[in-house]
Amino acid sequence: MKLFEFNAKSLFKQNGIPVPEGYVAKTSKDASNIAKKMNRPVALKSQVLVGGRGKAGGIKFADNPGQANDISETLLGSTINGEKVKFLLVEEKANILNEFYVSVAVDRFNQKILIMASAEGGVEIEQLAKTKPEKIIKYYVNPEDNFLPFEAREIARKMGVGSSKISEVGRIIYNLFNLFVKYDANLAEINPLVATDNGIIAADAKLIIDDDALFRHKELMDIEEYSKEEFAFVKLDGDIAVIGNGAGLTLTGMDMIKYSGGEPATFLDIGGGASEESITRALDLVINYNPVKVVFLNVLGGITRADDVAKGVINAFNACDKSVDMVIRLTGTNEEEGQKLLTEAGIPFEISMEKAAMKAVELRNSKYA
User: Fold this and answer.
1) How confident is the model over 222-258, as pLDDT tens digits?
2) Which one is catalytic: 5, 83, 120, 189?
3) Given this chain, do its domains 21-92 and 98-227 carry the same CATH topology?
4) Is 277 a catalytic residue?
5) Burial class of 298 by CB neighbour count within 10 A (0 to 12, 13 to 18, 19+)
6) pLDDT at residue number 360
7) Percent of the chain residues past pLDDT 90, beyond the cut
8) Burial of 283 per CB tally in 10 Å (0-12, 13-18, 19+)
9) Potential cystine with 189: which of 49, 168, 206, 230 (Cβ 3.0-4.6 Å)?
10) Given this model, what pLDDT does residue 333 score?
11) CATH node for 232-368
């Protein structure tokens, strides 16, 4: 379950993590009234559950209510990385002196909780890990052990935040860890955590709750806007997106891409009962993932109907502004109807998974080698 930023910040504030003053706007008039009420420059932040919204133009600033009105009109209803913006978080614009990074996550390989921190925030942690891995502090906590305040302060010291900020940053790290445990989270992240004239605050907030633990947190399910994880989606290092209906079939499709000489860009399992709408959303997700050059959709219809898959593919093609090659393996329940729909739409398909995987790699190599 992913929480929108404003929901996550509400929980952060309740658990001792300072956040900027902010309010939700669902219309441009709301945004203008909030800016007028705050009587200071504001940030207008698109509330979406996908990454990269800043680079995609989803965060803008306004100096007065009139600007807030005009900017919100352009943001509301726009699409950020495949997701429509339905509301904004309007909050005070922080005077940023320094940016830091702090996160708490489950490290399943080491079977421990991992705290990561850096004095260089405001950038994607994956990018920082590639360019400046020495700037990332990693601290492992055994789930059976207590995490103590002095350990949080030691992480802040290793970050190099400066002696005057160690206690404040340490307290936020400690509170973030406790929030992570309290809500059975998979990830609690602040990027950036910023130093301002008035102290240190969480300028952004990301919180993902384990779906299997939601029965312990029924108050979270009463939140009006939340999203349960719809897909098992993992980003990889290649440039051929792999989508399948079922984890085994998706992994097999990835193996076939590797065997044919390609590199998978994604693992995306749409599940065994995917609908026309979920197919469209899955395709939107991978098509808008920048490294993707070719999409390999591998469907063996059982509960999932081939005609629903075909309709979802056609919808995604019609709505997409980005040109991406696609190879479809489509067979199984209602395959004749699905294949007929694709043929009428001028979209090629294969019945053989091996042939489809080879074709995806050939397309990638012929156009982008």
Assistant:
1) 664 544 555 678 888 899 999 998 888 999 999 999 9
2) 189
3) no
4) no
5) buried
6) 93
7) 58
8) buried
9) 206
10) 85
11) 3.40.50.261
DSSP lists the bridge partners of residue 89 as 24, 45
Fill in the DSSP letter of residue 268: E
Q: How many CB atoms lie within 10 A of CB 43?
A: 19
Of 69, 61, 127, residue with least CA distance to 94: 61
Give the per-residue SS3 of 76-117.
CCCEECCEECCCEEEEECCCCCEEEEEEEEEECCCCEEEEEE
User: How far is CA 249 from its chain centroid?
Assistant: 24
Q: Which of 101, 139, 174, 289 is catalytic?
A: 101
Max CA distance (Å), the chain = 69
CB 190 within 8 A of CB 202: yes
Q: Average pLDDT, whole number, for the chain?
A: 89
Tens digits of residue pLDDT in 85-95: 999 999 999 99
As given in the structure block, the two tokens for residue 45 are 């932040």
**170: number of Cβ within 10 Å:** 21
Between CA 343 and CA 118 the distance in angstroms is 52
Q: Are 147 and 187 in contact (CB under 8 A)?
A: no
Model pLDDT, residue 91: 96
At the fourth CATH level, which superfamily is domain 21-92? Answer: ATP-grasp fold, A domain (3.30.1490.20)
**Residue 261 to residue 330: CA distance in whole angstroms:** 22
Identify the H or E element spanning 44. strand 42-46
Q: Measured between alpha carbons, how far is 2 from 233 in angstroms, rounded to an integer?
A: 13
The domain over range 98-227 is classified in CATH as 3.30.470.20: yes
Parse the chain into domains and list their residue ranges.
Answer: 21-92, 98-227, 232-368
Active site residue 263: no
Contacts within 8 Å (CB) and 24+ apart, 322-326 = 322/287, 322/288, 324/287, 324/292, 324/293, 324/294, 324/295, 325/293, 325/294, 325/295, 325/360, 325/363, 325/364, 325/367, 326/294, 326/295, 326/296, 326/297
Write out the two tokens for 61.
């600033």
First-to-last C-alpha distance (Å) of the chain: 39
- CA count, 13 A, side-chain hemisphere, 355: 8
Q: At residue 289, what is the residue type?
A: Y
The rounded Cα 68 to chain-centroid distance in angstroms is 26
